[in-house]
Specification:
By secondary structure, this protein is mainly alpha-helical. The chain has 16 helices and two strands. Strands 1-2 form a two-stranded antiparallel sheet. A hairpin with a 5-residue loop joins strand 1 and strand 2. Helix 1 packs across helix 16, helix 3 packs across helix 13 and helix 6 packs across helix 7. The two termini are 18 Å apart.
Length: 337
Amino acid sequence: MEINKSKTVTFNVNFGIQILRMILCFWVIVFHFGGYKIKKKYKIINSFLHVPTFMIISFYFSSKLYSPKNISKIKLRLEKLLIPFLIIPIIKFGIIILFKPKIKIKKLFIDLLLQYITGYKIIICLWFIHILIIFIIFFEIIYLLFKKRYLFILHIVSIISYWFQYSEINYNIFIKYKRHLRSVSHFFEMMPIAVTGLTLGYINIMKQLINYRMKSIFFSIVILSFIYNYNICGEFRAFYYSGIKKNIAALSLFFSFYLIPLEKINKIIFLKIIREISNYTGGIYYFHPIISNVLSKISFLRYSKIITCFMIYIIGYFICLLGTKIFRKTKFKYLFN
């Protein structure tokens, strides 16, 4: 937050994206723990747009980092991801031993090893962080090797990834494996989406679209509606995040929220509230499977999936709020942000 000479307060955040992060985080919780009835009633939950949209957001806002001058910032970003990626499974490991003392320790250690290799075993949702880490390292290597043409090289990689998807090679290779190994297929699904976010951030497209704010929001909503309601791009055998329509739909969702003119609201208290309640989505995402496991022991919550989802989010928020305050001077604070 900054205060200028005219006493007006400006915030260094996009409030539309802050709200979108919060919605996407809750979407993830409902997708994982909302149950069949909620998914059937609200079909958008099964559209799988939450993960591609997170990917767009992640690389749009980090697009300017890929440069030799920013190696220290790249290292910091990797550190922020590696700390929860390495520690959260150990926390779950300890909880499993605590609640299931008869479990075979050898098998649990093998699961922990597979978690670190694939990002998908003990804490399933960490496959996304696993992919992020790989992409960040890969993009930086491509930049260092092809400074002037690195986006072109990444676009070629994206085209190859789409070919893998639409030719069903990706599906045919990984469908035969168990889920933790099948998660490797997400590399080819998420690559074009990450490159899209990176490219649009690099050309600073929002600087142009903000001049046509309402038209851009309108057309983004129309495109999103068409993709959701109609079979625009055809069907093929694939996993959850395949196809160009996931990319376009996630991008439309991103544009719609980014361009909402919330910054024009003069109520500073209102903006501060939005900023505060939309914090810690990363930490809530990391901890939500663990919180769900604990809440599943409470009998009355088993009958209300939606209440359970709200409680997971709220408990996760306060865990992260407290954890950030306790560990604010250490690197453990990255577990909660």
